[in-house]
Amino acid sequence: MTKKFLTAFSLLMILFLSACGGAQAIPALSSEDVSNTAIAEAFAIVTLTQAAMPTATPVPPTATFVPTNTAAPTLELLPIPSATIAVVATATLECNQIPALEPKGTLTTVEIKNESSGTANFAFGMNSPNDKGECYTYSFTLGRGDVVTTKVLTGCYWGYAWISGDETSVARSNGALYCLTDTALIYHLTILKETLTFN
Q1: pTM over 0.70
Q2: How far apart are CA 6 and CA 4, in angstroms?
Q3: CATH number for the domain running over 84-198
Q4: Residues 182, 159: Cα–Cα separation, whole Å
Q5: Where along the chain do its domains lie?
């Protein structure tokens, strides 16, 4: 009799507990959702930072009067070295354009290498329009150790990379411009944890 009672009691307890149900698990955000949110916030910060930076306003030339019978001196134009120029890099709205499939201006080659510890979402933007009025911002996604060789318009550029992975960081040109003026050279740009190197 006791055995039947225990069996019946056990069955009733099992039914009672299963009828109560368990606590519902709250779904967690996927790693892709977290990554997409972080990337969106990073690009919003880049946009706000670029918009807040002062624009370089050229100083108007002063009028210099030359007598009409004096010949103007001849000037020898020196080539501009392809080096980093320490000026403030500001992207204007006209330069936040997607690159055309067939640009009109001259092109040069740049090799971009990611030596950071994670995936780099890299923006590489022209500082001012070329003689054809073109002014683009190129964007690339490079995994750790990836190398991309591409053609870009000749001109001066700023760089910014949002690095995601185990340790997130930002690598940027820190106000310097990278001038890519020689069409025969291959320029090399390396993304590190918090800086960009250019040669």
Answers
A1: no
A2: 6
A3: 2.60.40.1120
A4: 19
A5: 84-198
